[in-house]
Amino acid sequence: MLTARNLTKNYSNLPVLKGVDIQVSKGEIVTIVGSSGAGKSTLLHLLGTLDTPTSGQIFLHDEDVTALRGKALADFRNQHIGFIFQFHHLLPEFTAMENVCIPGYIAGHPKKGVKERAMFLLDTLGLGSRQDHKPSALSGGEQQRVAVARALINTPAIVMADEPTGNLDSHNARELHQLFFSLRDQFNQTFVIVTHNEELAPLSDRQLVMKDGKIVDEIKSVSH
Fold this sequence. Notes:
Pfam families: ABC_tran
Oligomer: single chain
Radius of gyration: 17 Å
CATH class: Alpha Beta
CATH architecture: 3-Layer(aba) Sandwich
CATH topology: Rossmann fold
Shape: globular
Organism: Chitinophaga costaii
CATH superfamily: P-loop containing nucleotide triphosphate hydrolases
Strand order of the largest sheet: 6-7-8-3-9-10
Protein name: Lipoprotein-releasing system ATP-binding protein
Number of helices: 6
Number of strands: 10
GO molecular function: ATP binding; ATP hydrolysis activity; transmembrane transporter activity
Structural class: alpha/beta
Largest sheet: 6 strands, mixed
InterPro entries: AAA+_ATPase, ABC_transporter-like_ATP-bd, ABC_transporter-like_CS, ABC_transpr_LolD-like, MacB-like_ATP-bd, P-loop_NTPase
Strand content: 25-35%
Helix content: 25-40%
Order of helices and strands: EEEHEEHEHHHEHEEE
């Protein structure tokens, strides 16, 4: 479903990615691990089209996303890729429901359908009773689950998560891990997750180990 070939990324004269190949199948949960500075977040940002590679190609559903520019790229990203970050980036002046709905409105979907899906997702994530609360009235774990619902609102092909548990305590981190696997089991949702969390990484289908801008090892989970 997702294929990247020979991705490189240079910042000025500094090579950060040095020829990365990756394939992710539908319904897979893949974690990218490695020490700080290995290139994990850079790779995730390239795969999520938030940044452009210096060279190489990325295909999602056979579409060469590296060939897209401007509005076409923004529209493709909005429709096909969901994002979850370490800091949830919820808009403080909007309720949980409104935060979840925003990408659906940007995509131009009918408001009634967007609201119905947002309510379904909030219910699924145990937040139905919190829909009218603003982020300041939600716990850290609740805010991150709102961010997960927002990432799923447009039924993306793939969700990119960058250190999603990095700002959570161990209890909420475990709950979020379980949520990812429940979403995979329930919706066949695909995830690519950059993480330092030593509890989450081994639970994934595969761990891709990065070092010095390259994938140097692949560890398949014994439980899958």
